[in-house]
Design brief:
five-stranded mixed sheet
């Protein structure tokens, strides 16, 4: 095995990885990313899922957690009309609409993240349409994460329920509010939206949403003011209901991303609950305080309660591609004349690890870097700190590539010296081949003897390429999963490092660098192997046409650095060999 064989094996490994990712995207149910679409008019009619999953919540003396009665399919069918008024809250990062019926969050727009859509261009030949070319574009409309539109329903609910029956405001309770429009002014750090409800016995409940500047998390507090003469009892619940949206892939070799639910408990910090799981084996478990979430590519919504205790986690397949993930909290008891506050946090925003880790423990695990997370996380950490200094993610990728090359410089130097030695041995290897033309075994024996005599290790030439593969895959996950790189520009024509080069300039330059690197490497003695090597730059260029431009930038930078290092080491080695021969002659 020599450098060329190692290169071929690495190429096959990359192709296998990409094909597997593409197959996984096509065949694994519940691991699809939602496609951001252009904004469409919001209809006043809203689909609101029934909360009958939490009707008749009873206390279990053995575990002190509520038990959830499984609903019938009919009970879970969404209601077509919302009877409350719509409250609009606008901050610097969020625009949220809240229904006064139950205080449901019906819409959430992310003001800092423009919507993504695909511009389609038909490709024809002689008037015959061959295929449609899709290019990712961004408009100035805010990305709509939560919405109450038929067909793409995605809303969040919370409320109180329990034995008190009508004394607990659930999703059907009608709250009152002072005004319908709230705006976080420039001189404000936060804004409170207070919904209030009371029953005939004097139990007052205030549901307060607190929005803060620059924050995608919303504090939701329930203040239970029991002015009646009898104790009040109930349970806090929260759920997220959404429709599964099929994925539309703009090109080949795109890594499958997860769309579905996830929960966290003290026993298991991160557990996916796919839509397929909700249908085949619905979730129903008791565990300590954690969180529930719905995940899609780049964005997430999550409920994280703050009250200690044991919670019931559950999921429901509501039919019509609608699914619910929810939790019910421990019993709340408020004596007559007393007041109690129960708090939870709702997050609707980008999957940035820094913000998610502040919302709830282990919520940052939803940024899934795959099986190479242990390598992807430090790569992103370094990239982010470089970006904070220079303000450009493209140059951050270049500097990370330089750092990786410096770390492995001793290994690369050893490999390139071995390759340089192989180049100087080419005439002797050709002579052996001619001498034993009819005996492959003798050719192999003589070649190995030559290696031992000249102290050359043919295997070491593979190491520079082999070392790149884990970093290549890890960076692939970073580029695909890190929302910070969504829409991140580089220079000139590269406006989004997470999508392919629109003019294919970087892939062509990368292919040229691979060809030049081959010219510096020893020629394979096997003609078949030499032909395969000759076509590899073309094959890689074809694949890299569809890769994120940030990944192509990494590979191109790595090739340029490798070429420079290989050229320098080869020249130095051959010069040293020439001086040694001259000394022997003298």
């Amino acid at each position: 095995m020599d450098f060329q064989k190692g290169f071929i094996y690495v190429a096959l490994a990359i192709i296998a990885f990409l094909l597997y990712s593409n197959w996984q995207q096509e065949h694994v149910i519940g691991t699809q990313a939602v496609v951001e679409s252009q904004a469409v008019p919001v209809t006043p009619n809203t689909n609101v899922p029934s909360i009958s999953t939490i009707s008749k919540v009873k206390q279990n003396p053995a575990t002190s957690v509520p038990t959830v009665k499984k609903p019938s399919q009919a009970a879970n069918k969404p209601v077509t009309q919302a009877n409350g008024e719509m409250v609009t809250v606008t901050t610097d990062v969020l625009t949220v609409k809240i229904d006064t019926m139950g205080g449901k969050i019906l819409q959430a727009n992310l003001n800092k993240y423009p919507q993504k859509y695909f511009q389609e261009t038909p490709i024809s030949l002689f008037g015959i349409k061959l295929f449609t070319w899709k290019v990712a574009k961004y408009n100035h409309e805010a990305t709509e994460l939560l919405n109450n539109k038929p067909g793409t329903l995605y809303i969040a609910e919370s409320g109180l329920t329990g034995e008190s029956g009508p004394d607990t405001p659930d999703h059907l309770a009608t709250y009152k509010i002072d005004k319908l429009d709230y705006v976080l002014d420039e001189d404000q750090d936060s804004v409170d939206v207070v919904l209030h409800w009371r029953n005939e016995d004097g139990v007052k409940i205030y549901k307060t949403f607190t929005f803060e500047r620059g924050d995608y998390s919303v504090k939701v507090n329930y203040t239970i003011d029991n002015q009646s003469l009898k104790p009040w009892e109930g349970n806090l619940y929260a759920l997220i209901n959404r429709t599964e949206v099929p994925q539309e892939v703009p090109g080949l070799f795109h890594l499958a991303t997860y769309m579905g639910a996830a929960i966290s408990t003290p026993n298991k910090h991160y557990q996916k609950v796919s839509f397929k799981d909700m249908t085949k084996d619905p979730l129903s478990m008791n565990a300590g305080m954690g969180w529930i979430s719905m995940i899609q590519h780049y964005f997430i919504s999550a409920w994280a309660p703050k009250d200690e205790g044991t919670y019931h986690y559950y999921s429901v397949d509501n039919g019509d591609d609608q699914y619910t993930i929810g939790l019910v909290g421990p019993s709340l008891s408020v004596e007559g004349g007393a007041t109690k506050v129960s708090e939870l946090v709702f997050y609707a925003g980008p999957t940035t690890t820094q913000q998610l880790s502040q919302v709830a423990p282990h919520l940052d695990l939803t940024v899934d870097y795959g099986w190479l997370w242990w390598l992807s996380e430090p790569i992103f950490w370094v990239m982010k700190h470089i970006h904070d200094l220079i303000g450009n993610w493209g140059f951050a990728i270049i500097f990370v590539t330089v750092i990786i090359k410096l770390i492995f410089y001793p290994l690369s130097s050893l490999s390139y010296r071995s390759m340089a030695a192989m180049r100087t041995l080419q005439p002797k290897m050709q002579a052996i081949k001619e001498r034993y033309a009819d005996d492959k075994q003798k050719i192999s024996q003589a070649t190995m003897e030559l290696y031992r005599k000249e102290k050359v290790n043919p295997l070491s030439g593979c190491l520079p390429i082999l070392v790149q593969i884990p970093f290549f895959i890890a960076l692939y996950y970073v580029l695909m999963e890190s929302v910070e790189l969504r829409q991140a520009p580089f220079i000139f024509w590269i406006h989004d490092l997470s999508t392919r080069d629109p003019y294919f300039i970087l892939p062509i330059l990368m292919g040229g660098s691979m060809f030049l690197q081959q010219r510096l490497s020893p020629t394979p003695p096997d003609p078949t192997q030499a032909k395969v090597m000759m076509f590899l730059p073309i094959i890689f260029t074809g694949m890299f046409l569809f890769f994120p431009s940030g990944l192509v930038l990494y590979w191109l930078t790595n090739n340029v650095l490798s070429i420079s290092q290989q050229w320098y080491i080869t020249r130095t080695y051959e010069a040293g060999k020439g001086k040694a021969k001259n000394k022997k002659k003298k």
